[in-house]
Amino acid sequence: MTSKKYEVSGMSCHHCVMAVEKEISKLNLTEKKVEIGSVEVKYDENKINESQIIQAIEEAGYKVIH
Q: What does pTM read for this prediction?
């Protein structure tokens, strides 16, 4: 099991949080916590990879800060 926390730019309100939650909910994550400016996830590396998580956040319209 892998745990990651991502800083996310562009999130400023509850609507932003909901948009990111909607996109990452499509993934096979064990746990997720979305707050303004950050996303924390736990996932099985055999079922999902980090690039899929980053892509889902970016599809919601926000940028992951590396």
A: 0.92
